Amino acid sequence: MLQYITIVLNKDKYAIQMENVQEIIKYENIVKIPGTDNYIIGIINLRDKTIPIMNIKSKMNIGNNIAPDSKIVILTHNGILMGIIVDDTAEMLHIDDESNIENIKESEYFSSVIKKRDLLYKVINIDKLFEGSKKIYVNNNTTEPEELINENLVQILKFKLGNEIMAIPVENVKEIVKNPEIYSIPDMPDFVKGVTSLRGEIIQIIDLNKLFQKDNLNLRELIIIEIYGIKFGLHVEEVRNIVNVSIDEINKLPITNKNSKVMGVINLDSEIVSLLDLEKVFGELGIEISKNIEDKTGETRSLHEDSKLFLRFKLLEEYYAIEIEKIREITTLEKDNVEDVVNIRGEIIPLIDLKEKFYYNKNNSKNVVIVKGKEKDFGMIVDKVEEIMNVLNHEIESVPEEILENASNTKYLKNIINRKDDLIFVIDVDKFFV
Fold it and tell me: What is the pTM of this model?
């Protein structure tokens, strides 16, 4: 006995063999592809698998409208998964007599017709839907981080603490957590605020209010940093941006306290930034941490080698990311009207409006990410810079072949970060030419 499920497209019913149907889910949580101009319109995360989604009406040239109450039928074929958007699913067909099935010759999208109860159901040709597909769930974990273009440059992350701007080296930053939940721990030094749980890992938090003898500021963001293989959280008032500075721009102060936690100061656009010496900051925790460092450095280093840092930002309602080694700095434009170039400390940097390039919709945002391009540095105008995120290598996937073949701007996509509830496209900045 053959089994089929029937689907509804524009009020007409079609049939699909049940052996090709994995499940049926709600039409929701689709991450749209930038510049979609064909029938593969996005991806979803289904139990940690990235699955491309097809507008089957567009594929079959019978329209492209998608109703809010549509469904997604997850199909499987030769080990490949793909979802198709349907108006509805109708019924199960159980065919005992194969004489009720008649093959169709020279039809592009239908393999046969089922006759049952005086009704005709065209059977969709699954081979045709999956035509050209390849095995797509392959992690791309072999890419090695590129060396900094200029070894004399240092990337720093700026943050605000009261009326002062401080910074730490980006190489020590693991990620940024907004509004963390903090649990107090008894019998700790007064500059240890407590701990937080980050994906099951307990992170101790340093209260910079106490460490720098500030008033009781409204600390609301947590910078997770790592030094000597140990992770800690720095509780700060506001995370600012990433900038590149020359080592020569870091001014050593001739008069300092013996235990000063400031490595030097930097003059950035008339803003004085204090660069913290993390070794001195963590030295405040004393002998106990030294022993932990000695015990855990080797183990944590191996874990660190299995992850990469990314900058996550937003365009419309979707999230994108860029490898942190490709980021030169993050800045905010002064003018309301965005121009084609920006002046960064006397250097003219060309700008690309990502929203206009991906979605054909001009962006009025002032937020710019300066990146290191293949031929020259350039700026990307984005809606909002969100965070620095630490991504494990197994969470980095190749872009499905169906997506690469069916949208005009997919050449700019390098990978997909798959983090259960989040699917984030990684942009390949080397593909832009300015």
Answer: 0.62
